[in-house]
Amino acid sequence: MKRALMVAALAGLTALAACDRPATSPDAPTAASKAAAFTHDLPEDVSGYYLPTEEVRVDNWRLHHVFMGQVPDFIAWQGGERPSGFAPVMIEFEDMVGPPLENGNRRRLRLIPAGYDVTEDRVRVQALSGGLGAVSFDGKLDQGALATARRNLGDQGVVLKGTLKVGNRTFNNVSMRWWAGD
Description:
By secondary structure, this protein is α+β, with helices and mostly antiparallel strands. Helix content is 22%, strand content 40%. Strand 7 and strand 8 (122-129) form a beta hairpin.
């Protein structure tokens, strides 16, 4: 049953992703085949947390960050290693209405990807959430700004900018800064 739901979700995400893509030649991979794939082409390390520079909120959920792991994380994931609750690219939301947890933090919703394509200058990820529906992010990664942020151990400058879709809502020009994490 769980597998059948996941297959149906992937089919829905594939159809959704195909709506936004231009037609391709018969020999080129289709948008549908790319949407559910897990691909990366990373000559540089892009790992870290990408935090929105301005609040992006859908009902009581606020975008907290997009996480990207190190190249070995991508290789392991694509090789079939899928630890529970972790992926080389994740989108995380924070509940801004519910009561804080015992430790004072807010409840978080971590989305594991149904598909992604990450390169040195592009981040595309699709996920599915029971509460939020289909979620996707398509953004441009600025390697120069990322290098500056890494040298400064986190900089307020924009390193990732793109479009976030959550259910039937679209947020254009979502800007994110880089943070290494704890």
